[in-house]
Write a structure and sequence with these properties.
Immunoglobulin-like, 14 strands, single chain, rod-shaped, 2 domains, four-stranded antiparallel sheet, 197 residues
């Protein structure tokens, strides 16, 4: 009888403990994929599982909290360490991937930064690496506020490779002034060159 009482007691205790609810935290797994376009724009896709909040560190000083896909424009040709943290109910996981940007091109605007008489229009031919790029026209002087790269107030030039280039500019008059110099283009930036006399 004692033996049956012990077995019954053990069975009762086992039954009690096996019916208790165990709170299992979800297993969070951070992950993402990305594609790089020819312009250097990167499309990120969050492929994490079981996360409900997300924090991105783009490796360039910017952060985001996108849950699904988004695009990001990096501003330099270099390697960036992109980190995604996925979290749910206090449980987190981190994924870090290297994103190498090496296809950004630069933009350039060449503009006049010297005054001319209002009755004289000074037109200037612009060449980069021996190739004609356009004509700076008129009497406008941008010494204090240079135009932006998309502006028609100078000669906007797109898709220049990063590095050294030869700039040559010449006034469109007999014995006109000539500017010649080596310039350095920074990829992903609006590079500005002022023509000063």
């Amino acid at each position: 009888m004692k033996k049956m009482l012990i077995i019954s007691s053990i069975s009762f205790i086992t039954a009690i403990f096996s019916c208790q609810k165990v709170d299992v935290k979800p297993q969070v797994k951070a992950d993402f994929s990305y594609t790089i376009s020819p312009s250097g724009r990167v499309t990120f896709t969050n492929t994490s599982t079981n996360g409900d909040s997300f924090s991105w560190s783009m490796g360039d000083g910017t952060t985001r909290d996108d849950k699904t896909s988004f695009t990001h424009d990096f501003k330099a040709n270099k390697e960036f360490q992109v980190k995604l943290t996925a979290t749910r109910e206090g449980v987190s996981d981190v994924a870090v991937k290297s994103v190498v940007i090496n296809n950004l091109l630069g933009r350039l605007v060449v503009y006049k930064a010297f005054p001319t008489e209002l009755t004289k229009s000074t037109n200037i031919w612009v060449y980069v690496d021996g190739k004609y790029q356009g004509l700076v026209m008129g009497v406008t002087n941008f010494a204090k506020n240079p135009p932006d790269c998309g502006s028609l107030d100078g000669v906007p030039i797109e898709n220049l490779t990063e590095g050294k280039h030869q700039l040559k500019c010449q006034e469109v008059i007999t014995n006109g002034y000539v500017w010649e110099r080596e310039i350095t283009i920074v990829a992903g930036a609006c590079n500005k060159e002022a023509l000063i006399r």
